[in-house]
Amino acid sequence: MIKKMTFLPARKFGFAKRGVVAVGSWADLVLFDPDTVADTATWTDPHRFPAGIPYVVINGRLVVDQGDHTGDPAGKVLRKA
Fold first, then answer.
1. Measured distance CA(29)–CA(5) in Å, rounded
2. H or E segment and range at residue 12
3. Contact indicator for 54, 67 with CB cutoff of 8 Å
4. Among the residues of 1-81, which ranges form H helices?
5. 58 DSSP β-pair partners
6. 56 near 66, Cβ under 8 Å?
């Protein structure tokens, strides 16, 4: 299931070094508990982070730590190679 949702789409769209956890690849990881994930956005605050996602790593950099954004703008828009 994980390969189908990470590795295969990365290859389909030509994103090298994405979609796998391996030496030399970009580290994009989300740690979550499926039993506690919930949308917390509202009409007045549509950009609120969801509950149940305590850690997010983008390009090897911690951007969500214990549910709070660290302020690190580690990500960028990916374009097809």
1. 13
2. helix 7-12
3. yes
4. 2-5, 7-12
5. 61
6. no
